[in-house]
Design a protein that fits this description.
Largest sheet: 6 strands, mixed
Bound molecules: iron/sulfur cluster, fe (iii) ion
Radius of gyration: 24 Å
CATH topology of the largest domain: Butyryl-CoA Dehydrogenase, subunit A, domain 2
CATH architecture of the largest domain: Beta Barrel
Strand content: 5-15%
Number of domains: 2
Length: 490
């Protein structure tokens, strides 16, 4: 689909969406939601442009047809590297979260796990998954990947919760499918998706096997409700196309998705009670999505560009400390890029033929993402100045009473219109503390797993024995002798 066809396809969905407590008839036209739809539309538009085709499209291993890369199952490390490049490209052109990665990551994780479950249990999840994949690829669909349950009391497993719906589960098993109840929270791009792919949120043990469940449903399936999360400065979008929005083109959105007894036919169920495979599914999805945080490198590009612009508008771009701070911003941003390229280049083939990123490097990349954007944002605010938070509104510029004063006293370098200076300040505000800060900062912290989740994985994946052995060898420690004296090794 191209961008227009994508928008039309969303209009056909009968989604049950609430924004600020009110039901929205046409999410595509809602002023708060529309910028987020336009950001996803960019993933379609770029795929039709010859200069981006190599990065944005791929050849389906199922049909042999050219497809949007967001629906592709990675067939090589080259595919993985292109995925990272695609993320940076889209982040740098949208300046926000373009939302379509979660579904791509869910599809790839499921392509591995369904195959492994079939090998062990003789089930038929993998062929079922491939049929579903063909449906997604043929329709060039946007899928939402829904993983995070509300979780209730964090000290208790799903089966011990006072309210059993705190983790999504099946409440009825029928001949033709299952009925599910629960919720998924923090759902990126939910109402811009044609499909919702649900996965368990964590490792499930035997006692919690009712919660070891994965499936896909159309986003407008009966019983699904979307409640859109508030974002900082979101109601500025209701003020029209003023420069107070910062990013006047694009935005993101997050939603809480309620599954109130939703029916799922068996041919759309990809895991049901096979709790011993939940760890793998969660870890693989997380690793793919941690790689996807290449998007933040692209948003970093926008922020660095905006910072250079405001430095020039303010006449401070030649100051050596300003130059040095911008070098530091670039250094941090390119270091992030190294991580998402490295975990892709070091990927490997899984049993199903799907290529998986290097888990350790993907976790290290995401761990850096929880930190560096904050430092890049700090430097941007340092250079931009306190006017970031004291700037009068765009409406004051239009005021017949005070407009002339606002215009006169927000001007800096001669020849630069005051409005241009205000626009770039608003963009920096948008990315570092406004609506786009949801994506650039807090989502960098918690999206694809909070920092501690990556530290646990880093601890588990690093080969500490090997490092110890090399160190001991180089300084002449004899393993046998040490074993004798301490009685612990040998
Ligand atoms: Fe994609 Fe980044 Fe948005 Fe996640 S935060 S959906 S990786 S753009
Ligand atoms: Fe995310």
């Amino acid at each position: 689909m191209d961008a227009k066809e994508y928008e039309q396809s969303l209009k056909k969905l009968k989604l049950n969406v609430y924004v600020l407590g009110k039901k929205v008839d046409s999410p595509v036209d809602d002023p708060i939601l529309r910028p987020s739809m336009l950001a996803v539309a960019l993933t379609y538009e770029l795929a039709t442009m010859p200069e981006y085709r190599d990065v944005m499209t791929a050849t389906s291993h199922v049909s042999g047809k050219t497809i949007n890369r967001f629906t592709h199952i990675h067939q090589s490390t080259d595919d993985l590297v292109k995925k990272s490049k695609m993320g940076r490209l889209l982040g740098s052109l949208s300046g926000c979260c373009f939302q379509r990665c979660v579904g791509m990551d869910a599809l790839n994780a499921l392509s591995i796990t369904t195959h492994v479950i079939d090998q062990k249990h003789g089930t038929a999840y993998y062929p079922r998954f491939l049929k579903y994949l063909a449906h997604v690829q043929d329709g060039d669909m946007t899928c939402d990947g829904a993983m995070t349950d509300p979780k209730g009391d964090r000290s208790l497993p799903p089966s011990k919760q006072a309210d059993p719906d705190q983790y999504l589960h099946a409440v009825e098993e029928r001949k033709d499918g299952i009925v599910v109840r629960g919720a998924k929270v923090h759902q990126t791009g939910a109402v811009n998706s044609h499909e919702v792919i649900v996965m368990p949120t964590a490792t499930m043990r035997e006692a919690d096997k009712e919660y070891a469940i994965s499936f896909a449903v159309p986003s407008d399936a009966r019983g699904i409700t979307y409640i859109i999360g508030r974002q900082s400065c979101d109601t500025r979008k209701l003020e029209g196309m003023t420069f107070d929005r910062g990013n006047v083109c694009y935005g993101g959105h997050e939603a809480m998705i309620i599954f109130d007894d939703v029916f799922v036919p068996w041919d759309r169920v990809f895991m049901y009670k096979e709790h011993e495979f939940t760890t793998q599914l969660v870890e693989h999805f997380a690793a793919y999505h941690r790689q996807s945080y290449a998007c933040k490198v692209g948003v970093g590009d926008v922020l660095i560009g905006a910072t250079q612009v405001i430095a020039e508008y303010n006449g401070v771009d030649k100051a050596s400390h300003v130059k040095d701070k911008i070098i530091e911003m670039n250094h941090l941003n390119e270091t992030l890029y190294c991580g998402c390229i490295a975990c892709a280049a070091e990927g490997h083939r899984e049993q199903s033929g799907t290529y998986l990123v290097d888990l350790l490097l993907a976790n290290v990349h995401k761990q850096n993402i929880t930190r560096f954007p904050y430092e890049i944002a700090r430097l941007a605010q340092d250079i931009a100045g306190g006017i970031l938070v004291t700037l009068p509104s765009a409406k004051d510029f239009e005021s017949p009473d005070v407009g002339k004063w606002v215009e006169k006293y927000t001007r800096a370098k001669d020849g630069i219109p005051a409005e241009n200076r205000c626009r770039v300040l608003r963009l920096i505000e948008n990315i570092t503390m406004g609506a786009a800060a949801v994506g650039y900062l807090t989502e960098s912290m918690h999206g694809a797993g909070s920092p501690q989740a990556q530290r646990i994985m880093i601890n588990r994946l690093v080969n500490m024995r090997e490092k110890q052995a090399i160190a001991k060898k180089l300084c002449g420690i004899q393993p046998a002798a040490e074993g004798k004296s301490k009685g612990t090794e040998g």
